[in-house]
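#struct-pred

JT: dropping the chains for the assembly here, can someone run the whole complex?
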Amino acid sequence: MRYLPLTPNDRQDMLATIGASSIDDLFVDVPEDARLEGPIRDLPMHAGEMAVEAHMKKLAKNNSAAGDMPFFLGAGAYRHHVPASVDHIIQRGEFLTAYTPYQPEIAQGTLQTLFEFQTQVARLFGVDVANASMYDGSTACWEAIVMARRITKRGKAVLSSGLHPHYVSVAKTMARFTKDQLVSEAPTLDAATDGVDLLDQIDDDTSCVVVQYPDILGRISDMSVLAEKAHSHKALLIAVVTEPVALGAIKAPGQMDADIVVGEGQSLGVGLQFGGPYVGLFGCKQKYVRQMPGRLCGETVDAEGKRGFVLTLSTREQHIRREKATSNICTNSGLCALAFTAHMTLLGEKGLRDLAMLNHKKAVVAADRLTQIKGISLLNDSFFNEFTLILDKDTRPIVRKLADQKILAGVSLGRLYPDESGLAHGLVVAVTETTSDEDVEMLATALEGELA
Amino acid sequence: MSMLTEGRPTKQEENIIAPDSGALKTHTGNRALMVDEPLIFETGSPDRSGVDLPAAPAAESRLGGLDRDEPISIPGLSEAEAVRHYTRLSRQNYAIDVGLFPLGSCTMKHNPRLNEKMARLKGFSDIHPLQPVDSVQGALETIYQLAEWLKTLTGMPAVAMSPKAGAHGELCGILAIRSALEARGDAREVILVPESAHGTNPATAAFAGYKVEDIPANADGRVDLDALKARLGPDVAGVMITNPNTCGLFEPDMKAISDAVHAAGGLVYCDGANFNAIVGRVRPGDLGIDAMHINLHKTFSTPHGGGGPGSGPVVFSEALEPFAPLPFVEKTEDGHFHLVEEETAEDHHESSFGRMVAFHGQMGMFTRALTYMLSHGADGLKQVAEDAVLNANYVLRSMEDVLEAPFAKSGPCMHEALFSDNGFANGLTTLDLAKGLIDEGYHPMTMYFPLVVHGAMLVEPTETESKAAIDQFIGALRSVAERAKAGDELLKSAPHFAPRRRLDETQAARKPILVWKEPEEYAEAAE
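RK: done, full complex below.
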């Protein structure tokens, strides 16, 4: 077996050193009735690279890859071009096959990239500090709600109707067990998010108000008013960013006085991957840093006075604090964080701003083209690279039909909100730098056909 | 103390000379391949970029008047600089690709490159989680096949695939337990956790709203069955047991523990972090457990990536199956793969405790793990467990005359060997030994864990090390252990040869610097 270096002779020699007559002697603690004789049945025996590759390729082939057809899906996962060097960097064995940097003297590579990552995320979000990553945006969002409860000692979280429905689902699942109270409604097809409704929900029992920016329908709203109202009740504003590229074009949540900003970092470096692994981003104001979940990398010096980096403030974490930890999170999303930071470093501020405007302008052009079609109107007054079209038909069957024609048309609101019949005509369309004019034209033609 | 510049053979002890006499200073401060790399904030600039983009089309912007008008201050590098930056940084890392990585309980085994290649097939890497299910049948089948492997290997009837890592899987299991108890109107408050458990166990139970109580270990390093039985009662929701446990030992009473917990109305969670020791030889389903997470990044070789991403599927007993989270994949009679989500769950899965994460889990890890399983097959996986256990016992028996092995007398260990610092000279600690190992070219073992052994050192060689590699490691570990016992003061300042000497963690925590600031801001912060 190609991954196992021991030879039969090695095994015999080693058993002799141990003083065991056979490998079974080493499994004596396993009760006899739990021991298996021979390899487990119903599973295949070992296979070489060629056979395994053939098996996996067959599975892979039975999927419609986004790059092979016009593709317009977003809603929390975006298709961006990842520079070739990013994948090369994350495949360096010294990054790929390293452990969590608990031995800092021989992990400065990982630690320095995490320090750079934290700084980039904090600057992108416009907040003071950021951690070394979470699993993904949805779990980061729930952790932010828990953090707000710890800070305010209140249990009522007010969720914007523009928050991604999967993020809402995760929060609802968890809140049922933790007895947190959640205020949450499905979105309505208005040009602006929430309106005054959300403001009215914020009171002296509120721990936080959670707002996605841009929201699930692509709308962009100024969160300053919410921040002010939340702060007047000593509650926190949590901003959720599922498309970090947007922050190359629109104001940072921190600039609108958000207290905690979380996000999904998948857009930069990571790729679609059918939903995971992704990388949760988590930043906040300096004064809340000791209430943060997850790993933090900090700067220090070594015994010779040289600058170096270590994981720090670990007294918040489970391996030290056990049941009193701020979270149970251990493994985070290190390699995806590396992909994110490498992509961001290749972009730089100018590249990020250019990429963001390229996304935005392409989306504007696409929105104009698609709304020329009879039976389609645009919901949004404002958007970044994703907008919601209202069709005069239920969009879900259309999306399925177009997928059979090798056009991935977007995310129907019927898929995201199956119980909300009022949303069934909505179609969320994302346009990125990877979308060509021909792609838009093919989508337009197909939609014209469906709506004629 | 003199520099080693003579090129003459030196005796063993002379080799261990701190190289910091300062006699030879280089202009750059670097030493050959050991090169320091500045931060991107010191070398890059916001107007430099390693990405060429086409011009944006002419169009009015519609950003709602919220244009980002202040500097973002994120520096860029050209591709040439970026590749060098990260390559230089990578060389300051220890990794499995570099050498044996004996980190107990973390299972740092070789990460096959076929896994990486398969995960990058565009049919896996370039598909969106919300594509119509007919356009991702191969992805759903991949998840389904992996689920079948996991169920067969564990002898359990159900599996939840979406948890993002081990601790997230623990949470999944505990929430299922709580759901099952609530469904029978029997809300309970306490989860029992052995003292030797991973920190994630009590943290998870608390995160899910439970009170946590310790179960003591007996003198053999196992769960004290009598103490456990004495504590069971109507307030105990369940137990979280690691098996093989964190002392590297199989819990021979596991079935009796499960039976006792069930008899008292509770449920059994097993932390499967150490499943690699028994995969293919023992099915946890035969031991009466109700839920167990499996770290794909441990047992099934997906890379640790410097701290993730992981993946933590959870297998369930029949008692917990109805409460498993959404989403999951089902195969219909006509061979179609069906994604059960919120809207489709109502038909036949209304007891599910709900969604734990956006989308469907760590697909990129599923493809790697399935590739690994297919490569090894049922026979290879059994060999994996056997070689892992053989290697660990070989280390145990090769070391026990030098390092105290507190539980070695009671029999063989499983996949990891546990030692204590008993016998070290005054003032020398497990940490010193660990840092001494760094100078020998090794990543240290797990230190100070489990908590039940003083100065614990937990060594897990894994099955992907050759006998020669293990022999060399044993030689190094013996040498450093002898030095610790002899009171070698140089160990206290080890490592001497790493890219950094010991780092001041106290300073890092007292005045946390978590983001880079312009030098003048540092000066202000120090005031």
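JT: nice. Residues 70-81+349-451 of chain A form a domain with the Aspartate Aminotransferase, domain 1 fold (CATH 3.90.1150.10). The first strand of chain A starts at residue 129 and ends at 130.
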